[in-house]
């Protein structure tokens, strides 16, 4: 029996804890790792480990259209909380 495994990559957050101490002007998912945004690097690394049947990436309302142009995977709007974002991705 083959497994059907999907990846949900959470990239819709506002990075409030990450940016709080340093008052950073950029959300952590947009930090660069080489030529890629952090969320793209994480996605690349996961895809190197496993061939997922489906990949769903959550995005904030502000980043949604931009991320759709950067990825051929399914991009969904995140929610006001991590829990809501996961629910949106599962739908």
Please characterize this protein's 3D structure.
By secondary structure, the protein is of the alpha/beta class. Helix content is 36%, strand content 22%. The strands form two sheets. Strands 1-4-5 form a three-stranded parallel beta sheet, sandwiched between helices. It has a two-stranded antiparallel sheet with strand order 2-3. A hairpin with a 2-residue loop joins strand 2 (32-33) and strand 3 (36-37). The radius of gyration is 14 Å and the shape is globular. The two termini are 25 Å apart. The mean pLDDT is 88.
Rg over CA atoms, rounded to whole Å, is 14 Å
How many strands, which pairing sense, and closed or not: the largest β-sheet?
3 strands, parallel
What is the ordering of alpha helices and beta strands?
EHEEHEHEH
What percentage of amino acids are in beta strands? 15-25%
The span between the termini is 25 Å
Q: What does the overall shape look like?
A: globular
> What share of the residues lie within helices?
25-40%
* Order of strands across the main sheet: 1-4-5
| Count of β-strands | 5
Number of helices: 4
Mean pLDDT score, rounded?
88
Low-confidence segments: none
Which class do the helix and strand fractions yield?
alpha/beta
Tag the structure with descriptive keywords:
single chain; 91 residues; alpha/beta; 3-stranded parallel beta sheet; two-stranded antiparallel ribbon; globular
What is the gist of this entry?
By secondary structure, the chain is an alpha/beta fold.
List the helices and strands and how they pair.
Layout: E1 6-11, H1 16-20, E2 32-33, E3 36-37, H2 38-49, E4 54-59, H3 64-70, E5 74-77, H4 82-90
Parallel strand pairs: 1-4, 4-5
Antiparallel strand pairs: 2-3
